[in-house]
């Protein structure tokens, strides 16, 4: 994100948020410092438990970046406004405590009697392992590593959906990829999204999606085959570079699959995509 008037060294917090009635529940995900007029970072987390919170990626309604003072930037993925005064931090209610039963009195052994202690009963300190879903900051991969961004392991699986048969029947099929990682693709127009939403598909529009559509005049929907099953994806056409990768991730399209046909020298064309349900 480029902000020319932003000085370097300012700590900013990245939060996802979920709409719950009139309030916006903020999920703190990451903290990083600004550069000289730029804020650039990347997050990696479990899509089924974003940042360790009990919310999946599909439940997120957007992201906000804020400072301790008055800086506030946000992106909504559901076409609803963001009101900073409606934010509240997520609080996990503590589970009820069960009172422990009263201990029965025990006979005190004689003072000259020593209780033997076996070596196995000694207390040993162990290192506490880091939680699996902890957020880590990674370097942006080089262009030759773009296929790593489309690893099926980073996406949730889904059972076969009868709505997918209607999608294949109602929209033209295309085959933009050289392998079957993403298959059975169909081409979408921007006006098709409201129709798909009426059929139960959870897909909204945002500035990144609109930019990709108006540049390349189409969108894509396909089926992703992963190790744990299947899921369906919405793809936005674009080129792979560091700036577009950051924009795509900020607007909810974290993965990239290069197309088989490349017509622009020095650039990798493909689709930034996210799972839809």
Describe this structure in words.
The strands form 2 sheets. This protein has a 6-stranded antiparallel β-sheet. By secondary structure, it is of the alpha+beta class. The chain has helices spanning about 165-170, 190-200, 205-215, 240-250; strands at about 10-20, 25-35, 60-65, 70-75, 85-90, 175, 180-190, 220-225, 230-240, 255-260, 270-275. The chain is globular. Strand 1 and strand 2 form a beta hairpin. The model is unreliable at about 110-145 and about 150-160 (pLDDT under 50). It is built from 4 helices and 11 strands. The longest helix is centred in the last third of the chain and has 10 residues, at about 205-215. The two termini are about 30 Å apart.
Secondary structure elements and their pairing?
Blueprint lengths: L10 E10 L2 E11 L28 E5 L5 E5 L10 E3 L73 H8 L2 E2 L7 E7 L3 H7 L8 H10 L2 E8 L2 E12 L1 H9 L4 E4 L9 E9 L1
Parallel strand pairs: 2-5
Antiparallel strand pairs: 1-2, 1-3, 3-4, 6-7, 7-8, 8-9, 9-11, 10-11
């Amino acid at each position: 994100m480029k902000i020319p008037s932003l000085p370097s060294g300012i700590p900013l917090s990245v939060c996802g948020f979920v709409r719950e009635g009139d309030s916006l529940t903020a999920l703190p995900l990451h903290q990083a410092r600004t550069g000289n007029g730029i804020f650039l970072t990347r997050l990696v987390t479990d899509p089924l438990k974003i940042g360790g919170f009990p919310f999946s990626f599909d439940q997120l309604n957007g992201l906000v970046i804020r400072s301790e003072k008055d800086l506030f930037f946000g992106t909504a993925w559901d076409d609803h406004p963001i009101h900073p005064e409606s934010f509240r931090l997520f609080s996990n209610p503590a589970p009820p405590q069960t009172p422990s039963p009263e201990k029965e009195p025990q006979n005190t052994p004689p003072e000259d009697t020593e209780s033997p202690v076996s070596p196995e009963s000694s207390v040993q300190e162990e290192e506490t392992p880091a939680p699996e879903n902890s957020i880590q900051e990674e370097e942006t991969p080089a262009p030759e590593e773009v296929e790593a961004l489309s690893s099926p392991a980073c996406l949730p699986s889904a059972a076969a959906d009868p709505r997918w048969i209607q999608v294949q029947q109602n929209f033209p099929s295309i085959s933009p990829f050289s392998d079957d990682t993403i298959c059975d693709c169909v081409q979408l127009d921007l006006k098709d999204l409201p129709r798909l939403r009426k059929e139960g598909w959870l897909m909204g529009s945002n500035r990144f999606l609109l930019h990709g559509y108006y540049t390349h005049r189409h969108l894509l929907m396909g089926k992703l085959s992963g190790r744990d099953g299947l899921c369906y994806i919405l793809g936005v056409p674009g080129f792979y570079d560091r700036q577009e990768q950051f924009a795509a991730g900020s607007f909810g399209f974290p993965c990239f699959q290069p197309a088989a046909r490349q017509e622009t020298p020095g650039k990798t064309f493909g689709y930034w995509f996210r799972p839809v349900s």
